[in-house]
Amino acid sequence: METKIYVGNLSYDTKEEDLRELFAQAGTVASVALIKDRDTGQSKGFAFIEMSNQSEAEKAIQMFNSYSLANRPLKVNLARPREERSFGGGGYGDRRSGPGGGFGRGGPGGGKSRRGPGNAGGQRRY
After folding, report:
1. Mean pLDDT over residues 101-117, rounded?
2. Which residues partner with 78 through β-bridges?
3. What is the pLDDT of residue 85?
4. Residue 95 carries which DSSP code?
5. Nearest in space to 10 (alpha carbons), one of 37, 59, 44
6. What is the rounded distance in angstroms from the CA atom of residue 19 to the CA atom of residue 105?
7. pLDDT (tens digit per residue) in 36-81
8. Where in the chain are the domains?
């Protein structure tokens, strides 16, 4: 059951309480996570809200997608699962240093330079 929704295009002044109060109109709000910059504590302009069941999540999307909050049209939809992210350089599959990747490292590209035949003008080929 998908009960977590994404809320985007928030004003940086929006508080978790504001979102809880607004989305309670669609049903029971299980949790509100306003995403903030870890260094400054400043809102990043989006949040995740978990409703108590799928029908309430769908109702919240219908009610509040394009809804104007603080003169900004909200973007509300089902939250997508988090994607794996690699931090720093040299991660597995990294274009520059992963297995078979990068220029002049053997893999699919055969060690060709960026300005090799078929790549006139130095345009990047991916």
Report:
1. 50
2. 5
3. 72
4. T
5. 44
6. 51
7. 999 999 999 999 999 999 999 999 999 999 999 999 999 999 999 8
8. 4-78
CATH 3.30.70.2740 for domain 4-78 = no
The answer to whether 98 touches 67, Cβ cutoff 8 Å, is: no
| Amino acid sitting at position 42 | Q
Contacts of 22 (CB under 8 A, 6+ apart): 64, 69
Q: Output the six-digit token pair for 94.
A: 């990294």
Residue with tokens 């985007």: 8
Model pTM above 0.70: no
Name every residue whose Cβ is closer than 8 Å to that of residue 123 and which is 6 or more positions away in sequence: none
What pLDDT score does 118 carry? Answer: 55
Residue keyed to tokens 């035949």: 117
CA–CA separation, 71 and 10 (whole Å): 10
| Closest of 48, 43, 49, 52 to residue 14, by C-alpha | 43
What string of DSSP letters covers 26-58?
GS-EEEEEEEE-TTT--EEEEEEEEESSHHHHH
